[in-house]
Design a protein that fits this description.
The structure is a single chain. The protein has 586 residues and is mainly beta. The protein folds into four domains: 120 residues, no CATH class; 107 residues, Immunoglobulin-like (Sandwich); 113 residues, no CATH class; 194 residues, no CATH class. It has seven helices and 44 strands. The strands form 13 sheets. Strands 11, 13, 14, 18, 19 and 20 form a six-stranded mixed beta sheet that branches. The chain is extended. The two termini are 62 Å apart.
């Protein structure tokens, strides 16, 4: 490992960057401070350049070290020059300062500036990849043995082991229809000779006698380049057995169906099993030699969620069978009544050995999670207390638990919500899933098993409105924070709703979870409401609710009008100095 240190001190330093140079040092404090400022600016410039390199995915195309001066050329055209010989001292003693470290490792450079490290990969980055025809007609003829296609890469790829090649697009010229990219594969190692790349191409699902326009893609150290299209003509006598279903056996516990006339079958997996890392090979008693897994292409998946969330499925299943949900699916993929599940291929040597619809058994799909049969309209504080002005929080779950004192005015449905709150629970018949634990909704250990990458119990607003408190309105009039007077006849005043702002953030249930323009938030995990320091004591009305999000969906916890409470705050009382905000227009 080659390691150099660039010690940047307060004076006597010569700093070399792509941004410029400064030298000299005196005893004058102002001059010293000026140089320190320049030094700090140079640090900032270097950090900015390195940060941009990471953001754009640039790599170090070449690195040159001449007598301690590093010249790093990046794939985006940027050049960074660093003089590692810079030393500084004042009066024979070290003045102090920060060190910049340039460290060349295997496949990367790590540059540390002021304690912040930036690691940039090395390796030539391809800027162009051009097909080189070998015959006058410009075609590549693919027979049963395949063909080798020649490309010119610029700059040249010095280390092919760090480059991966794939077919990125296929268009059948005869019909102009887009292929599935499965008609051809890279069938072996790519080699380099005299500056040209030789790519072995093999047909697998191509049609005999058809012509295709094909584009190649190379990923070199994170930089992806696509070639121009070249014409591939498939021989008339071409034949490739792309499917040979067999040589596998799914374990009986996964309820395999018989293979149908088109080679498809299905299996059913307990949804809980898929929520932990596993390997699909473990689902088989017999598995083809050298076989790998593929999530079937987007167009071949059943219509619905399997197509909508194809990328998630593709990232969740690795070729070796390793499985781990890349993100929360929010569905069991059983929404297509004609063909539930998602399609997985087992492929050995480019031959499909199995086509399996994977159906997820969702144990919670039919469980009723409605702990409450309806919500209540109520007033926090009533005529007894009010929210103060400025920043503060409201523990809404604690308020529900102590509703007799916290909500002294309840307009309706006390028996449907408040009387049920303390004993609210959900079970799946055998096990408790959600319960009220001393005033807070919580998941049991059994309930937590189903969450996966979901949020579990989460809180949000369904609606939000601004009201004028009784104590702020006089004779049906009030004055807003700008001193403007409104009356009931103008659409505002006591008990007149200002309307809902139009910048809600949508939530998974289809209601509204946050009202950004008022800076009033609710903590998803706890339900604690936070008011900003700009709160001036005006009245609020909020439709507050919680739901349960698990791996395969979202369950509402209340039936009817889908809210726990329609709660008023400062409806009756407000601080003496309370002010109404100016109305916001929709």
């Amino acid at each position: 490992m080659n390691k150099q240190f660039w010690n940047v001190l307060l004076c006597g330093a010569a700093l070399v960057l792509s941004t410029g140079t400064f030298t000299a040092c005196g005893d004058d404090t102002d001059e010293l401070e000026s140089r320190v400022a320049v030094l700090e600016g140079a640090y900032a410039d270097l950090k900015d350049q390195l940060g941009k390199a990471l953001t754009t995915g640039s790599s170090v195309v070449s690195a040159e070290n001449k007598d301690g001066v590093w010249t790093l050329k990046l794939s985006d055209g940027t050049t960074i020059v660093i003089d590692t010989n810079v030393k500084a001292s004042t009066g024979g003693s070290t003045a102090g300062g920060s060190a910049v470290t340039v460290e060349q490792g295997e496949g990367s450079f790590t540059i540390t500036v002021d304690g912040t490290s930036y690691t940039i990969p090395t390796g030539a980055t391809v800027n162009s990849l051009v097909y080189v025809p070998e015959y006058a007609d410009g075609k590549v003829i693919v027979g049963n043995e395949g063909a080798t296609v020649k490309f010119l890469a610029r700059p040249a790829i010095s280390d092919l082991s760090k480059a991966s090649f794939s077919i990125v697009d296929v268009v059948e010229l005869k019909t102009r229809s887009v292929g599935s990219n499965n008609e051809f594969v890279i069938a072996g190692d790519v080699t380099e000779s005299e500056g040209y790349l030789s790519v072995p191409l093999k047909g697998i699902k191509a049609v005999a006698g058809a012509s295709y326009a094909v584009a190649l893609q190379v990923n070199c150290s994170g930089t992806v380049i696509t070639s121009n299209y070249f014409t591939v003509e498939v021989a008339e006598d071409f034949y490739f057995e792309s499917e040979k279903i067999g040589d596998y056996a799914i374990k009986a516990e996964y309820q395999p169906t018989e293979v149908d006339a088109n080679g498809f079958c299905s299996m059913t997996i307990d949804g809980l099993k898929l929520l932990s890392p596993m390997n699909f090979k473990d689902l088989f008693d017999q598995f083809p030699e050298n076989a790998q897994f593929q999530v079937a292409p987007h167009a071949e998946q059943p219509g619905g969620k399997a197509q909508e969330k194809w990328e998630l499925l593709d990232k969740s299943l690795a070729a070796d069978g390793s499985w781990d949900f890349y993100a929360n699916p929010g569905t069991s993929f059983n929404d297509n009544a004609e063909q539930p599940g998602f399609l997985v291929y087992v492929v050995a040597d480019n031959v499909t050995k199995a086509k399996i619809y994977v159906k997820i058994s969702d144990a919670l799909a039919d469980v009723d999670f409605t702990m409450f049969t309806g919500g209540s309209e109520c007033e926090w504080g009533g005529r007894e207390k009010y929210l103060q002005m400025g920043a503060q929080t409201i523990d809404i779950q604690a308020a529900f638990q102590n509703f007799t004192t916290e909500f002294p005015i309840i307009h309706n449905n006390q028996d449907k919500f408040f009387d049920v709150w303390a004993s609210a629970s959900v079970s799946n018949g055998d096990d408790l899933l959600i319960f009220n634990n001393d005033g807070r909704l919580e998941l049991t250990d059994e309930g937590k098993k189903y969450v996966g990458k979901g949020r579990g119990i989460f809180w949000f607003y369904r609606g939000f409105a601004i009201y004028v408190p009784e104590t702020v309105a006089t004779d049906g009039k009030y004055i807003d924070e700008n001193g403007k007077e409104y009356s009931a006849g103008e659409g505002y005043g006591y008990d007149f709703w200002m309307g809902q702002p139009n910048d809600y953030v949508n939530d998974p249930v289809g209601f509204y979870s946050n009202v950004a323009s008022w800076n009033v938030t609710i903590d998803e995990k706890t339900g604690v409401i936070s008011l900003p320091d700009t709160y001036t004591g005006y009245g609020l009305r909020m439709a507050i609710v919680a739901a349960f999000e698990y791996a395969y969906g979202v369950k509402t916890l209340v039936s009817g009008d889908d809210k726990f409470v329609l709660a008023f705050f400062n409806r009756r009382l407000a601080p003496a100095e309370a002010k109404m905000p100016a109305p916001k227009k929709d």
